[in-house]
Amino acid sequence: MDDAPALSPxxxxxxxxxxxxxxxxxxxxxxxxxxxxxxxxxxAPALDYRxxxxxxxxxxxxxxxxxxxxxxxxxxxxxxxxxxGVEVFRAGVGKLLWEIExxxxxxxxxxxxxxxxxxxDMIGDNTxxxxxxxxxxxxxxxxxxxxxxxxxxxxxxxARKLAPGGCLYMVTDWEDYAAWALGExxxxxxxxxPWGGFAPRQPWRPQTKFERKGLxxxxxxxxxxxxxxxx
Length: 231
Prior knowledge:
34% of the residues lie in helices and 18% in strands. It is of the alpha/beta class. Strand 1 (59-63), helix 3 and strand 2 form a beta-alpha-beta unit. A 7-stranded mixed sheet has the order 3-2-1-4-5-7-6, with helices on both faces. The protein has helices spanning 22-35, 49-53, 69-77, 90-103, 115-122, 154-161, 175-186, 209-216; strands at 59-63, 82-86, 108-111, 128-134, 162-172, 191-192, 222-228. It has one domain (22-228): 3-Layer(aba) Sandwich (Rossmann fold), CATH 3.40.50.150.
C-alpha cells in the first residue's frame, strides 16, 4: 500500500463559457442522446462497455479531448478499438459529435464531466486499454501546480483503471510540466517506462491544434509513454 494522499477536490480546469457554433449546437442536440453517456456518482456498477459499444473491443479513454479533431481521426483510423472521450467543455463535445456524424464513426462515446470523478465513479479497475492525455492545461504558475492533472494521487487512479499491459500516453509542449509528469508517473506504483525517460513521437498520433500553436511559439513537444505492469 502506498502513502499517496487522498484525491484532492481541486479541479484541474476552469470551466469557461465557450461559444458553440450552429453546427455544434445541432450536433449536440441531435446526437448527444445517442453518443453521450450521462455521468452518475458512485458507488454503482462500472460502465458495461459491451452494452455501450455493442462489442468487446478494447477501450481507449481520452481525457480532455478539446475540440475532438484528433480523437475523431484516431478513432476513424482504428475501427478495431473503442474510444471513450471525457471533456467538460460543451463546445468541444458538440464539435466531436459533429465529427462523429461527418465521418460516420460508431466507436466513440462521450462523457461530459470531470475526469477525476468519472474515473472514480464509473470506470472499472483494470478495464481501460489505454489513456490518451494530449496537451493538458500546464498551469505554469507555481501556485497553480496543484491543479495539474498528471499529479499523484490521480496517477495512482489512472494506473488502477488501466488493464495490465495497457498504456498511458501523455503529450505536452511545456518542458516544466513534462518533467513534473515524468516524475509523478515514475513514482506511481504499477507503471513502467519502456524508454526510461521521454518517449519518441508516436507516428500514429495526429498533430493537434494546441501542438501547432506550441510549435509556432518554438516550443518543443515532450511525450511520455508508460505501461502498466503485468501481474
